[in-house]
TrEMBL record:
<keyword id="KW-0808">Transferase</keyword>
<dbReference type="InterPro" id="IPR013216">
    <property type="entry name" value="Methyltransf_11"/>
</dbReference>
<protein>
    <submittedName>
        <fullName>Ubiquinone/menaquinone biosynthesis C-methylase UbiE</fullName>
    </submittedName>
</protein>
<dbReference type="GO" id="GO:0000179">
    <property type="term" value="F:rRNA (adenine-N6,N6-)-dimethyltransferase activity"/>
</dbReference>
<keyword id="KW-0949">S-adenosyl-L-methionine</keyword>
<dbReference type="InterPro" id="IPR029063">
    <property type="entry name" value="SAM-dependent_MTases_sf"/>
</dbReference>
<feature type="domain" description="Ribosomal RNA adenine methylase transferase N-terminal">
    <location>
        <begin position="28"/>
        <end position="159"/>
    </location>
</feature>
<keyword id="KW-0830">Ubiquinone</keyword>
<dbReference type="InterPro" id="IPR020598">
    <property type="entry name" value="rRNA_Ade_methylase_Trfase_N"/>
</dbReference>
<dbReference type="Pfam" id="PF08241">
    <property type="entry name" value="Methyltransf_11"/>
</dbReference>
<keyword id="KW-0489">Methyltransferase</keyword>
Length: 260
């Protein structure tokens, strides 16, 4: 997706992004913040801040944090959420080329953002310039671990034109770590985060799909096919459900941190 399309998708998702009762972005954001070891004197920036999953945990500790997001509506809503916090600034901008001062920040975070960058290495090198010497950069990304949620989400692909997914630097721990090294970071570490996400029913799962970047796929499916796709998803969800009727999936996340 180009920049305008990405902005449009997340602008439309913003009102319900991380607001459908699924605890997913928050634990990832908290874990990433813990991994970069924030200090009370730190100045931080959270790139692609969304609705604040990493932004607000940073704000709880650091002296000041700036959140930047491409989607105007996301910025508007997150800025409203930050009202009353004296140490949070939220601005609109492109995470790939943030218009921010060099050598100004002690911490740079990008939670579930880096894989959206058209040129991840170029973006990472720009991010490194934002850091002061000794500053920490941390990103979170999805681990390529097969699980049942992938099976459910794959239903959507049957209603879209076939496309071959190119090999990605984010496919493996080693290549992500090397990305940070190539960008100029040292002492790069990788940790894994796993936790369960629980869906009450297909309706909640469907609302979740439309509340994040996954909505882009649904927007490309003809409306007359939506009901059939949802029925197939509901059948899979039911087959995976526990005795209480809820469906639990394991989320597998990678946290990669380096020092300038």
């Amino acid at each position: 997706m180009d920049v305008d399309k990405v902005a449009g998708v997340f602008d439309r998702a913003a009102p319900t992004y991380d607001r459908v009762g699924i605890d997913f972005f928050q634990p990832v954001g908290r874990a990433l913040v813990a991994a970069v070891r924030p200090q009370p004197t730190d100045v931080a920036v959270d790139l692609g801040c969304g609705r604040g999953a990493a932004l607000f945990p940073l704000a709880d500790t650091v002296h000041h944090v700036t959140g930047i997001d491409l989607a105007p509506k996301m910025v508007e809503l997150t800025r409203a959420d930050a009202a009353g916090r004296g140490n949070v600034t939220v601005v609109q901008g492109d995470a790939a080329t943030p218009d921010l001062p060099s050598a100004h920040f002690d911490i740079v975070t990008a939670s579930l953002v880096a894989f959206f960058m058209p040129d991840p290495l170029a973006a990472m090198r720009r991010w490194v310039t934002l850091l002061r010497p000794g500053g920490r950069l941390g990103i979170s990304s999805f681990r390529d671990v097969p699980n049942r949620m992938h099976d459910v989400m794959a239903v959507v692909q049957d209603y879209l034109p076939p496309r071959r997914a190119p090999k990605s630097v984010f496919d493996a721990d080693d290549t992500v770590a090397q990305l940070l090294r190539d960008a100029g970071l040292r002492e790069v570490t990788t940790t894994h985060l796993s936790f369960d996400t629980t869906f009450e029913d297909e309706e909640q799962f469907h609302r979740y799909e439309w509340s994040n970047g996954r909505r882009e796929a649904w927007e490309h499916i003809p409306v007359e096919w939506h009901a059939e796709a949802r029925t197939r998803m509901a059948e899979l969800l039911a087959s995976y459900a526990d005795a209480d009727g809820r469906t639990r999936f394991e989320a597998n996340i990678r946290l990669t941190v380096g020092i300038k």
